[in-house]
Amino acid sequence: MNGQHPRRRAVLKGLAATGIVLVAPAAGFAGWVWVDSGRSNTGTLSFRNRLRIPPLLDPATDRDGRRRFRLDLREGSTEFLPGTRTDTWGANGTYLGPTLRARRGDRVAVDVSNHLPERTTMHWHGMHLPAEMDGGPHQPIERDATWQPSWTVDQPAATLWYHPHLHRATAKHVYRGVAGLFLVDDPVTDALPLPGRYGVDDVPLIVQDKKIADDGSLDESTLAFGGLTVTGLLGDRILVNGTYDPRFEVTTELVRFRLLNGSNARIYHVGFTDDREFALVAVDSGLLGAPERMNRLPLSPGERAEIVVRFAPGDEVVMRSFPPPLGATFAYERLAGGDDEHDLVKFVAGRTLRPAPALPGVLAERAPAPTPTGDPFRLTMGDFTFNDRTMEMRRLDRVVGAGTVERWEIVNDQSIPHNFHVHGASFHVLDVDGRTPPAHLHGAKDTVYVAPGTTVTLAVSFLPWSDARTPYMFHCHLLAHEDSGMMGQFVTVSDADRALVRSDRLPQVHDHGG
Ligand code: C2O
Ligand code: CU
Ligand code: CU
């Protein structure tokens, strides 16, 4: 198949999530570990469905002059596979949610109404806002209740997203479909000659993998890790913006894609079937200083990337996720999806394409990574802990000075792939095992892949708000890991508020956990 090694079925016995993997190589060389009937989708698609573009949500202007958005979370059913229905959850629809959009300086508010059958939360991933607006596990939304966070957007233009964050239920709520994009605009980015017409040449691509049975039912049996499921659920059906088997018609020479890995556990390695080059222009927290040319882009759960791709008239090409280099031993590589290959979406370019100006050589005046002060904070990832502890709603794992920059060293000395996301901050990757980070880790980010046996050093710039009572989270964004406790919490406090933090217990935490 496609010139690859033939995959052989090897019998696996006594495989445990944390144990050693014994493989019986069938032909005397290191064979392929077989987990199930394979999770690749290449060759199975016909690209018959037009790519759905999540609608832009129109805000109202409220009495206080805020742009006020409304998200109604509901159960529903969606046709993914032709002729079948899948029970799903969504925001203002049956699967996923609309795209929220605001400009730097806007005062925004969101009414989030929970009509789901259980409590949830709504987190603004990557948004710079006070901890009580963050929508983490400490801001639950009960059934039929409405939560009304509001804040002033004040950060560089970026592709952010929203999703539930209820402790121990995040994997399920996101998997069922509650997620969407939140785009931040600013004058710096508006002034650049980047493609910017939403849904035309500025196209969101929310990539998710699912296990959907032929009858349309969503298989949730491996949402939690355990047994062979070392990173959580890995599906073989790809949805892009909730569209199965998608195609997009290209009408312009340059298209900017805003990629979001909205999957529970799958790590993608994005490229094109003709290996064409593309330009990475932005990562999680905004623009790079200059476009970075590449033909493969790794993207772990929660990460975003904006790429600009050039098309020629009549082009037909598939965006594919090639086997991602996870940096694990070959057995864990297989278990975590490192052998899997997925067609994501096919692009069909028209006979004439609207001309586009060349990409600028410089995108933004980027100051060098800020210099951390104070003692480094070291977080060692276990399977599935930080510094040997699992998440505890009442325990504080760190007190940080509001508005400071700290050096955080994230150590994965185990066998299983993880990634690292921190709320209430953006960070620069200073080094990976002492080496200069690769191009896709340049710029300001909020989520980073941490390969087995690797230490990633970050300069984390914390937000200016002070709140001694309400924590922000850091966690692995492989949702099964997060749900099983691979998460911790910190507060950011001014010097004056530091005295309000007593010991490592949160004094008045709203503990609705479990
Ligand atoms: Cu996207 Cu704490 O999460
Ligand atoms: Cu987040
Ligand atoms: Cu993890």
Describe what this molecule looks like in 3D:
A 7-stranded mixed beta sheet has the order 14-13-12-16-21-18-19, with no helix packed on it. Strands 1-15-23-22-17-20 form a 6-stranded mixed beta sheet, with no helix packed on it. The chain has 514 residues and is mostly beta strands. It has 3 domains: 49-185, Immunoglobulin-like; 202-354, Sandwich (Immunoglobulin-like), CATH 2.60.40; 377-500, Sandwich (Immunoglobulin-like), CATH 2.60.40.420. It has 4 helices and 32 strands. The protein is globular, with a radius of gyration of 22 Å. It binds CU-O-CU linkage (C2O) and copper (II) ion (2 copies). The site of one copper (II) ion has 4 residues, from strand 7.
| CATH architecture heading of the largest domain | Sandwich
**So what's the CATH class of the largest domain?**
Mainly Beta
Which regions contain 5 or more consecutive residues with pLDDT less than 50? Answer: 1-37
Q: Name the helicity range.
A: under 10%
